[in-house]
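User: Good morning. I'm curious how 3NM would be positioned relative to this chain. Could you predict the structure with it bound?
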Amino acid sequence: MNLQERLRKYLIMGSQNCQRDSVAILEEAIAGGITAFQFREKGPNALEGEEKLELGLKLRQLCRKHHVLFIVNDDSVLVEPLEADGIHVGQDDMDVEDLRSTFPNKIIGLSVSSEAEVRNSAIDVVDYLGAGPVFGTSTKVDAKAPVGVEWITSVKAMFPDMPLVGIGGITAQNSRSVLVAGADGVSVISAVTHADDVRSVVEQL
Ligand SMILES: Cc1ncc(COP(=O)(O)OP(=O)(O)O)c(N)n1
Ligand SMILES: Cc1nc(C(=O)O)sc1CCOP(=O)(O)O
Ligand SMILES: [Mg+2]
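Assistant: Good morning! Here's the predicted structure, ligand included:
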């Protein structure tokens, strides 16, 4: 499987996104067919320090067992202890050129929300792009204004060979429009973590 295929159904989650056990939710999402997972323990009620590491190790182990890509959000210090496949950063996080020097062989994902961000980013050193928020989201308190599926089409036109995932407000009902617009995959938090039937929602994505 190439990276495009491995990013097809990309669950992003931390314990703060879960109203029940996050390990159980990841197990159900894996049964439904996620291909990638991002450990994003961040924001109000997120775990820190040793507790964050402990949860990360459990989620990492599950992903390894089921051959699901395991990416860490923001926290470069956790990449080695969790033996992550890679790290995802945004425009205000660690510089991607520094990250590439630190992790020559890890997958690096970068968020892009506008043409200005694209112009100011070292796209050539990253492995995939996350574009959004495609739709409105209440999961991320500091999310930017929705960019629509048009932004997916624009990014794909600029970088046809770069793996691209959409993010922000994506659900089983609208995920097809994101893929039709040109994304290789959809990344989802609340539509999966808050679902009554996690497995079924992942199957429908
Ligand atoms: C796949 C993917 N795309 C975008 C983001 C957002 O990253 P960022 O802008 O750094 O925001 P935080 O997630 O750190 O709050 C992402 N995490 N994953
Ligand atoms: C973490 C994150 N990043 C975004 C971006 O636009 O960069 S939107 C977002 C939250 C996505 O959560 P949900 O699937 O619940 O809308
Ligand atoms: Mg970030």
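The two ends are 19 Å apart (CA to CA). The pocket of 3NM (ligand 2) is lined by residues 111, 132-133, 137, 139-140, 143, 167-170, 188-191 (CB under 6 Å).
Let me know if you'd like a different ligand tried.
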